[in-house]
Write a structure and sequence with these properties.
Elements: E1 17-22, E2 28-33, E3 36-40, E4 45-51, H1 55-63, E5 65-70, H2 76-84, H3 92-96, E6 100-102, E7 109-111, E8 116-127, E9 131-143, H4 145-148, H5 163-169
Antiparallel strand pairs: 1-2, 1-5, 3-4, 4-9, 5-8, 6-7, 8-9
The chain binds flavin mononucleotide (FMN).
The site of flavin mononucleotide has 24 residues, from β2, β4, α1 and α2.
Length: 170
Amino acid sequence: MKIEVEYLQFMWPMRHFLITCGEIEGKLNIITVSFCMPVSKDPPLIACAIGKEAYSCKLIESTKEFIVNVPPKELKQEIYYCGFHSGYQIDKFKETGLTPQAARKVKSPIIAECIAHMECKVKQEIETGDKKLFIGEVVEAYADEDITKDERKVEYAKGDFPQKIYSIRF
Ligand SMILES: Cc1cc2nc3c(=O)[nH]c(=O)nc-3n(C[C@H](O)[C@H](O)[C@H](O)COP(=O)(O)O)c2cc1C
């Protein structure tokens, strides 16, 4: 017998990314995002679904740029913090102590403590439901040297984040 289920529970595990947006000398923000995936290799495209009410959505709509930063597992607390607080009220760089650092090709900053960074320029915006899908072309991608040498492994989400909290809050 098959039973009705909530579809999202079968989409896990997902990676957690810290997306930076805004401009390094203006308004800046960090948002935790799991609805983020590659959608083309050539050209290299990443799709990120961001809540229409999120401060990050407004910033990306205005600058047409964002950066997908890959956090190491040690940043678990910061991942939660940026996923439970809004940049409308607070400066997440200040509150988390994460360091904004100039990117290579876009005006948003990278997060220095993250291990890899994909700088993206928005090519397409698609209204979905409660989210807006930003399709970004990866114009630069780089990572810590020790990661590329395989000395430190990128931590993959194993579905151990609180899925219940996730589905209630987002
Ligand atoms: C683990 C985790 C994953 C999340 N994934 C997403 C996501 O994919 N898309 C989204 O819009 N919000 C997601 N959120 C929620 C946002 O991070 C949250 O609403 C945030 O406060 C919005 O911040 P902002 O208003 O500063 O942009 C996630 C939160 C957590 C904790």
